[in-house]
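Batch job 17 of 40 flagged for manual review because the log was empty.
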Amino acid sequence: MKQTVYIETTIPSYYFSQRKEATLAVLREWTRDWWDHERQEFELVTSLAVIEELQQGDHPLKNEKLLMMSSLKQLEVTPEILQTVETYIENKLMPDDPKGDALHLALASHSKCDILLSWNCKHIVNYRKVEHLANINGLLGLPVPALLTPFDLLKTRYS
C-alpha cells in the first residue's frame, strides 16, 4: 500500500520557482526531481487551502501551479479539523493563521496522511515541533504525519 503524502503550498511554488539564488535553485531542483521521478510511489493529496493560497496574489506561473494541484484528491475541511486548528494555535504549535500552516497540519493529521511534504522549515518541517505535535495529537487521538521535505524522500538517490 502506498504512503499518503499531503502536498502543501510550497511544493508547487518551489517546483515552478524562477528565482536565481543558488539555494533556491537547489530546492527547486530537488522538488522537481522528487515530483518528476518519485511521486508515483505515493498517493498524493492536497486541500482547498492549498488551492486558495495559490490563487492569491500575482505570482509567476500561477496557472501552472494550480494545474499541478488540480489532479490531486482534495481533503475536506470539517468542523473537527477546524477545532484542531484552534487547538494548535492556542497551544502555540502553529502561528495564529487559521487558514495557513495549522490547517495544513490538521488536515494531514485527521486524514491519517503518512507524510506532510513542505519546504516551510520554520513552521512545519521543524524538528523542534515534532514532540509538541506528538503530545497534542496524542491528547486529541490523532496520528502524527512525518514532516518532510522532498529532499528527505530523495536521500537514497543522493547518498
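Reviewer: the log was empty due to a logging misconfiguration, but the result itself is present. The beta strands are 3-7, 42-47, 73-75, 115-117, 146-148. Unflagging and moving on to job 18.
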